[in-house]
Amino acid sequence: MSEEPQWLTEREQRAWQAYRRMFLLLNSRLARDLARDSGLSEPDYDVLSVLGSSPGHRRRVTELADRMLWSRSRMSHHLARMQKRGLVVREECQTDGRGANAVLTPEGVRTIETAAPPHVASVRRHFIHLLTSEQIDAFAEIGETVVSRLVDGAQGAPDS
Prior knowledge:
Elements: H1 10-38, H2 42-52, E1 58-60, H3 61-68, H4 72-84, E2 88-93, E3 96-104, H5 106-126, H6 133-154
Antiparallel strand pairs: 1-3, 2-3
Domain HTH marR-type: 12-148
Pfam families: MarR_2
Protein name: MarR family winged helix-turn-helix transcriptional regulator
């Protein structure tokens, strides 16, 4: 016998629907601006920004995939496309012959340095400037709480 679902209250439903709608609209707007301003897709920008903020502009491919919540296969295919465009290269990992590093090329560094300012302006225009200082703090706390619980809950979960 299955339990009766615990439906969301009106207040909870309002919060959930507001989040879902905001997530879809904001991501769509930011992706459109990013493509218009720099010709990059969100995945391109994510890879470039993670590598750009990594020591030596490099990161293990497996770590990059894990950070972006991608399969290793998806990451490998995406890096191959970016490599053809001259944005990244793959290098053998010096400490582990089985692994590889994704490394920004000089063109990749120029690309992220050029793309970042208009992208940050878009984030400010469509998100940050719409909120009060208190709302930004609350949003950060909410996001950090949910992420922490999801990450902690995944620690013991088997890989899918």
